[in-house]
Amino acid sequence: MPSLSFALETHPGRKRPKNEDAVGHALTSWGGVFVVADGMGGHRTGEVAARLAVEAILESLKEAEPSPKALLEAFERANALIYAEAQRPENRGMGTTATCLLLDLPYALIAHVGDSRAYLLRGEEFTLLTEDHSWVAERVRQGLLSPEEARTHRWRNVITNALGSFPQARVDLLGLKLFPEDTFLLCSDGLSGVLEDRTLKEVLKNFPPEEAARRLVELANEWGGPDNVSAVVVRLPKELPQGQRPYALPLEAAQGSPVRLKLGEEPEELPTQVLEPPKRPRVSWRDALLILLWIVVVAYILLGYFRP
């Protein structure tokens, strides 16, 4: 398995007394798992929720056979743990965002809850892979706010979906085939809410992962550091293993485009099967009689037309 180049950085920022972000990773025989989480609910509960999410997701996935189902089950397990803790009076309001990159080379699967993000740098193209689960992001998608207005809106920190908030997790799943030297960035909103996409792209493009992650965190703090800030940068090697996976991805994902996945749906890429020759349609006696009568009528008309 070719070695990955990666780095993880997290910092409390300049305005928060404590770091409620958490990051983690686990390398595996098929690639690796990388997670970033941003806790909420108070100094203690936010920190605990983020840590529980990262630990539960990594523990579930590092030994499991990689698949969209395994990734979803890891998030469901994390949600159940955090939700149970949140039922205690002292932990009321506990929850956390979570964004996970599962590398099953040469494929990637991404699970996402909240407003932490996953980006992909491929050549010159820099793409936001996830959709924020936040009040302002939903208004932007509805056309009621511009991205610039959302960035400074007073409700920009209001999350509409988080692990631990509900008994059942609502998780976005994505999948795509990887290209050599693809670079991923996972980050909390303490980074994406401060730095513009063009800045993120330039840093990822011009520096190796370890220096890129460090520079991104430093830049966020230079621009005020209003929140905890975390960055996970993962760069793929120049050569990737080839092969198919037991789980089916939609055709676009298998060609390299990120595609949203929904478990239980039929894949667009169906297995090859032997095609049987088409069977001849069976004609009833009534249909045969009608056809015969039609031939007789046409023949009678033609006979009268050509008779001298």
TrEMBL record:
SMART domains: PP2C_SIG, PP2Cc. InterPro entries: PP2C, PPM-type-like_dom_sf, PPM-type_phosphatase-like_dom. Keywords: Membrane, Transmembrane, Transmembrane helix. The keyword Transmembrane applies. Residues 5-236 form the PPM-type phosphatase domain. The chain crosses the membrane at residues 288-306. It comes from the Bacteria. The keyword Membrane applies. Residues 1-20 are annotated as: Disordered. This is PPM-type phosphatase domain-containing protein. It comes from Thermus aquaticus (strain ATCC BAA-2747 / Y51MC23). The lineage of its organism: Bacteria, Thermotogati, Deinococcota, Deinococci, Thermales.
